[in-house]
Design goal:
Number of strands: 14
Number of helices: 8
Number of domains: 2
Distance between the termini: 11 Å
CATH class of the largest domain: Alpha Beta
Low-confidence stretches: none
CATH architecture of the largest domain: 3-Layer(aba) Sandwich
Strand order of the largest sheet: 5-4-1-12-13-14
Order of helices and strands: EEEHEHEHEEHEEEHEHEHEEH
CATH superfamily of the largest domain: HAD superfamily/HAD-like
Helix content: 25-40%
Mean pLDDT: 96
Length: about 260
């Protein structure tokens, strides 16, 4: 790992979990930065914007700059911007909506329906309206494809579950962003200006973090914290390194 010059961190499950920062996480990042390593934060959260996510990291004690953070809502906005859409309807609550403030929002005849974590607004009226728009010709973009989320304790339906329902009802395939799509990893990689061989990704889940890193051509480190499930290690896809926690990363990455 001597050639590693950059690290892409998952946040929930690696640096913190269910609202609590893991012991040693802040100090580990400080040590890695002091050795000249570039840091990026990559999260499948759609509720947070880059700014709100950065502010939360800072409140937790981490050194973080907005340009180092890539949320699923930000990545979806970047992707949508590349399509030059006529208009869109964004189904999302929270600060993540700020990423779409420069788009033409049209909830009656949008070119794209963009699906994030719409929380309590995933109700009868809104979901029926969404499927009618899709049947009338709108295209569907899902900010991420995870079915369930336990990052705050109780099991919750995640964006991918609602997107799959709309796909099936409208018979229209969605574009899924977020991990494990390599698109988000590539955004982080491009912002670093580094080669794939010089960057490693750290996560707690094989089917999102490790699969996404592999798809982007990156090496990966799996930590046994957060939503880590030993059963995931029984498949063919394996991380390059396995650590008990974020505190063990310097032993793997730093070569004295």
């Amino acid at each position: 790992m001597s050639e590693i010059k950059g690290i892409i961190f998952d946040i929930d499950g690696v640096l913190e979990f269910q609202g609590k920062v893991y012991p040693g996480a802040v100090e580990t990042l400080e040590l890695l930065r002091s050795r000249g390593l570039l840091v990026r934060f990559l999260t499948n959260s759609t509720l947070k914007s880059r700014l709100s996510c950065t502010q939360k990291l800072r409140r937790s004690g981490f050194v973080a700059d907005e340009g180092e953070v890539i949320t699923a809502s930000y990545a979806a906005a970047v992707y949508l911007r590349s399509l030059r859409p006529r208009s869109c309807w964004v189904m999302l609550e929270g600060a993540g909506l700020d990423e779409f403030k420069d788009f033409v929002i049209d909830d009656q005849n949008p070119e794209y329906v963009v699906l994030g974590d719409n929380r309590s607004r995933f109700d009868f009226d809104h979901l029926n309206h969404a499927v009618r728009l899709l049947l009338d010709g709108a295209k569907l973009i899902a900010m991420q494809g995870e079915l369930l989320d336990t990052s705050m304790g109780a099991v919750e339906l995640n964006v991918g579950a609602w997107a799959a329902m709309l796909e099936r009802a409208s018979d229209k395939a969605a574009v899924y962003l977020g991990k494990p799509n390599p698109y988000n990893f590539n955004l982080a990689l491009d912002s670093m200006g580094l080669d794939q061989r010089q960057v490693v990704a750290v996560g707690d889940r094989v089917h999102t973090d490790i699969r996404g890193a592999r798809s982007a051509g990156l090496r990966s480190i799996l930590v046994r914290t957060g939503e880590f499930d030993p059963c995931e290690l029984q498949g063919e896809l394996q991380p390059d390194f396995l650590c008990d926690s974020v505190r063990d990363l310097p032993e793997v990455i730093i070569s004295d």
